[in-house]
Structures are given as structure tokens and as C-alpha cells.
Amino acid sequence: MDYQDIELLRFTTAGSVDDGKSTLIGRLLYDSKSIFQDQLDAVEESSKSKGFDYVDLSLLTDGLKSEREQGITIDVAYRYFATPKRKFIIADTPGHIQYTRNMVTGASTANLAIILIDARKGMLEQTHRHAFIASLLRIPHAIVCVNKMDLVDYSEEIYNNIVSDFKAFSSKLGINDIQFIPISALNGDNVVNRSEKMDWYGGSTLMYHLETVHISSDHNLVDCRFPIQSVIRPHTLENQDYRGFAGRIDGGVFKPGDKVKSLPSGFVSTIKTIELNGEQISEAFAPMSVTMTLEDEIDNSRGDMIVRENNVPEIGQDLEVLVTWMSTTPIHARTKVVIKHTTNESIGMVKELKYKIDINTLHRIENIDKVEMNEIARLSIRTAKPMFYDAYKKNRQTGSVIIIDEQTNETIGAGMII
Amino acid sequence: MSNYVINHLKELESEAIFVIREIAAQFENPVLLFSGGKDSILLTHLAKKAFFPAKIPFPLIHIDTGHNFPETIAFRDALVEKLGVKLIVGSVQEAIDNGRAKEETGADASRNSLQIVSLLDTLEAYKVDAAMGGARRDEEKARAKERFFSHRDEFGQWDPKNQRPELWNLFNGRKNYGEHFRVFPISNWTEMDVWEYIKLENIDLPSLYFSHQRDCVVRDGVILANSEFIKLKENEEVVNMTIRYRTCGDMPITGAVESEADNLDKIIEEIATTRTTERGGRADDKRAETAMEDRKKQGYF
């Protein structure tokens, strides 16, 4: 087994307390043998003491649950497992309306979203919400798991109805790749192993999808974007003139010899080397961290961006953003904030609140005077200096901002540039 | 046309280097907390890569409990010398001597929780505004919810109820006077990732991690090294065993595993088939169900 050459898939699961999300995660961890004996012993012990007939896999995420019961924290928890084909990071988020901000947080870095539907209940308001957030955050792939099939006698008809209901709703959303799978997380049907009870289902298992979904084109490979994190100047005798630009590629493919332009200065130069730790890199693309040197001495610094001469991002001080509000303090027009975008930062002013989106019906609510926590709204923001950005739908990194409270320094909003 | 994909280790490396560079850029006085364990050795290696050909632009801080394995200290000193990086040592013995910390008593006495005092004192003395460490989310359930950039109030406390949301790769390190951050660049690595990367990059480790012979005491199912820091209980006897360590804490609390794995390939094979968690041998986590969470709130790593 060549363990070292596998890809990393980040996915998010959204669900409420009863739709079997914890059981599904437990099942994935258990059937992929990612659970250690000491963890399993604890779960078996706990199931027994609660008088259950079977091992309750949802107890594997119990750390979270007991905290929830005590009301300590409701938050994104990250879990990890690997198969010989891929390594997985799960951003596990609670799915109630008041946790929209957590779902958005988990979704912001995900390649894929698992949306759980209880087969007995069909599409609920929260299913709309989960699907909408997945589309809003531009998660490239979604898998809709119709769970608890064991409780509806593995009925093909019920499954098909839910699938067509979902498709009717999601056609408005623009998620490109949606798969549907009938499962029972409790019994393990179609999770890792194929179900023997649903012959009518010809598709593959959830695990097979997770292991094979094509993610190499999830990053933008066309529009070259390299935000500079810092300038490396060793100040040593052997490297007196070394001047390297450190950063992570956010889009496109860079090669030594490429003509590039530096923003905001507009100076044009040629890439001399792309390297990391002294090793030369012939092609650099997202999400690689590299150090770049240029043929000409250009006075770049943190927050500047290196792009291709003939493919520059938008440059301007007026941003139109869809914002998820994350603070208990509502936002009003004329509020002064700090905008963080790539490695750049600027003071900004919220000029106008345009409308809110009802995340259950997708309707616009106009004429608003404030946006409260967990609401999604379109804002116009004016920054104090020009920013270099793309539309979020073009690039998730150069198209996103966070909004920071100037007084408390808290992160109060997450914005996607339109 | 080539396939523009990087493998999972390169992606994790890239993410960690991005975070380390953010720390250097966003803070005035960052430090790397160096325990001498494999995770902090890995972190130091990543920091070197992040700034090459410049040297690591921040010092390492080691909180010396006085109960360290001698191998750890020797390894630390050699590494610091090789990298040309500054080392700051915070001493728990000193904190005990000047009355800032009180030694635990009894057979299970440990200096683990006393580290908090020395750590916070040292961070304050050097006006540290960001302390990065090698903690990973897969280690323990309180850590599964830790942010990359974890905000600490002016008393060094972690408030799990009030963490900043972290979206995309936008890390908010802004803070008020007196507050600081703990930052965890290898949050998303698992134990297996760490070992595979160590092999891939050929990173040197202290000999403790490889199979060796040692005089041990088995206490509550945990194999502890016999040392001057451990008081034998009645009915306990010293046995010579073939062991290695999966984590490296203080001598009196770090459990070993019986193992013949004397090279990286064998260790990776052993981990792939092992059925207990890495911290399963840590006596400090066994004190209570929420032992880690409680210590973290107070300022532990």
C-alpha cells in the first residue's frame, strides 16, 4: 500500500440531533477501522450502561453531545479518518437554524457536503437550509443521503419521491454535482458495504463516492493569483541579495520564466525561481505554499498580489458581498469595520444593507435596517484602499473576506464577493 | 498534461507552512513551544522550510519540568545548535523554588500541571503575543474543536464557548493589549500523517521513539520508565522491557508501549495495526473525563 500518495478530501456534514448524523460518522469511522480499541471499549461500556441492545456508534461523538447537553459549547468539531485510497477530514457541524454560522464555517473549506435526510420525514426546512448553504459556499460536490431506510422497509418509492423533491428544490441552487444514496447508518446499508436489502439501487456506496469523487479540478487552475504573505530576506553573507516572496498559490499555474505583474504597483517582471526549502519547483498551483523570486528588484510587501500580466483580478474599493452574520451584535449601515481579504487588510465602511435572504424559502427581504446573527444578507462595503479580488464563484480564496469588529477584534461576518 | 494535484502530506505541509508564515507576519513576538516530542520537532522542521534560506525568525521556548528524559534535552540542544535559533528555557524547578508553584505529593505526583505556571510566566516575561505548538485535533476530544488561531484572554485562559469562527484561510490574529494567541499549525495532521511525513522528509527524532531496552514499572496498566522521579508503590517491581514511546512527556507520566519497532517503516506498520489511541498511555489524561479540557481552560497546551 502506497500510503503516501493519496489525496485529501475535506467534507462537511450538516444535520440535526435526530437525523442520524452522529451515527453516520460513527459508522464511517467504525467500518473504515479508524476507531481505536480504547475508544470502542468506552462506547460499548456506555451503550451497555444505557441498556441498549446494540453498540450505539453515535456515542463516538459523545464528547460533543454531553457538552451540548450541558450547554457548554456548540461548535464545529473536526474528525479524521483514512482509507487506502484517501484521507478525509470531516467538519462536523450541528444543523439547527441558530448554527448557520457553524455550518458556513465548516463549509468554507469543504470539497464536498453530505446532506442527510430522514426517509420517514422527507425534505424539511432544515434540508433546504443545508442545501442552500452548500450552494452559497460553492461546495463543489454534494451527496444527499436518504437515511433510516430500514425504518421505511427499504422502500424504493419513498426514496424516489425524496430524490425528486430534492431535485425540484436544488435546480434553483446551482450545485453542479449531486449524488443520491439510500442508506441506513445504523445498520451500515450502503455506507461502506453494499446493502443486501435494496436491490433496486444500482448506484455505489457512500464510501465509494467519497473515495472516488473527482476533486483535482476543485481549485481554479486558470487565473494566476499569488498573494504575498511576507518577504524573505535572510541578511546572511551568502544570501545578501536574496529576496523571496513567501505565500500560498490561490489560483492558476505559475512557472519560472512566466511574465508576471505585481499589484498594486503594476510593475512587470519575470519569475526567476519558485522554491521551497531550497528545492526548485517547476510548476506551482493551488494550494501550494512556495517562495517566489523575480528577475527584477520590485518592492513588494505583504498584502500585494502577483498575477499574470494579461489576467488581473478586479481592482477596486467597492465590494458587493453576500454576508453570513456571525456576531450577537447586529450590523447596521454606516458601521466601520476591518476587512480581511487574502493577506490584505483594510478599514471599511458598510455603505448599504441591500436585502436579506430567507434561507428556508430563498426569498429576498428588502428594506432592512439591520442584519442579525445567523442571517445572510447582501451588503455594499467601501474599503479605504483598493483591494484585488475575484468573484467568489470564480475563486473561493480570492473571492472571500472576513469582517472584523474594529473595537473587539472579533470576527463578526463572513463574506462572499459577488 | 500533468495532473494538478498534490498528495495529502504535501497539502498538510502547505497548510502548516501557510499558518506558520501568518504567525510571523501577524504578530510581533511569536515563539514556538518546543517540548522535545515528535510533534514539536515536526513543527520546527516546517518552520525551517517556511523561511528558508532565512533562519527561523522566532525563538523556541521549552518548559523544563526537571523531569524530562535526558535524551530529550540532548536532542533539543543539538537541534537548536544546528538551526541557529534562539532557545528560551522556562524552569518548573525555579517556579517551585520561588514559591510560584507547589509540588504535588504522593506516589502519582507529577509536574504536568505545574507547567502551566512556568509557561504563563515565561510567555509574560518575554511579552509573547503568539505561542505556536504542535497540538493536533485528532489527539483528544477537547482538541477536536480547537481553532488554528486560538485566542487567550489576559489571564491566558481558553474560552471554548467564545471562539472566533475560522473561515477559508483567513486567520484573524487581531487582539487587545495583554491578550495572546496559541496557534496550532498542524491541527489537521493525524498521528499517521506525522510519522509518514517524518519518514518522507527524513526528520531526526530522539532515540526514545525507537525500540530499546529499559527498566520499567507497570502501574495501572501503563508502562512507566523507572527513574529517580518515580516512587515505587508496594508490590511494584522493576522489569527490563523492550519498549518505545509514542509520545514524549515527562518521565513519570509518559507510558511506553512494548515494541520491536526500531525504524520508521516498522513504526508506521505498528501504528497502522495498533488498536489504542496515542494518548492512551498518558496518565495525565486519565485523571478525569475532561482532564484535557480543564487544563486547557487554565492555559495548558
UniProtKB/TrEMBL annotation, chain A:
For this UniProt record, the keywords arranged alphabetically read as follows: ATP-binding, GTP-binding, Nucleotide-binding, Nucleotidyltransferase, Transferase
In which organism is this protein found? Winogradskyella eximia
Q: Which GO terms describe its molecular function?
A: ATP binding; GTP binding; GTPase activity; sulfate adenylyltransferase (ATP) activity
Q: Which domain of life is it from?
A: Bacteria
Alphabetized PROSITE patterns for the sequence:
G_TR_1, G_TR_2
What is this enzyme's class at the first EC digit? transferase
One Pfam family hit: GTP_EFTU
Do you know which InterPro entries this protein is assigned to? CysN_GTP-bd, CysN_II, CysN_NoDQ_III, G_TR_CS, GTP-eEF1A_C, P-loop_NTPase, Small_GTP-bd, SO4_adenylTrfase_lsu
EC number of this enzyme = 2.7.7.4
State the organism's lineage: Bacteria, Pseudomonadati, Bacteroidota, Flavobacteriia, Flavobacteriales
Task: Identify this protein by name.
Answer: sulfate adenylyltransferase
Residue ranges constituting the Tr-type G domain according to the UniProt record: 6-219
The family database entries (PANTHER family) matched by this protein are listed as: TRANSLATION FACTOR
Biological process annotations from GO: sulfur compound metabolic process
UniProtKB/TrEMBL annotation, chain B:
Which InterPro entries does this entry report, sorted A to Z? PAPS_reduct_dom (IPR002500), Rossmann-like_a/b/a_fold (IPR014729), SO4_adenylTrfase_ssu (IPR011784), Sulfate_adenylyltrnsfr_sub2 (IPR050128)
As recorded in UniProt, its EC number(s) are 2.7.7.4
* Pfam annotation, one family: PAPS_reduct
Domain (Phosphoadenosine phosphosulphate reductase) ranges: 29-255
GO annotation terms (biological process): sulfate assimilation
* Gene Ontology MF terms: ATP binding; sulfate adenylyltransferase (ATP) activity
NCBIfam families with a match to the protein in the record: CysD (TIGR02039), PRK05253.1 (NF003587), PRK12563.1 (NF009214)
The UniProt similarity line reads: Belongs to the PAPS reductase family. CysD subfamily.
Name of protein: Sulfate adenylyltransferase subunit 2
- Report the source organism: Winogradskyella eximia
Q: List the lineage, top down.
A: Bacteria, Pseudomonadati, Bacteroidota, Flavobacteriia, Flavobacteriales
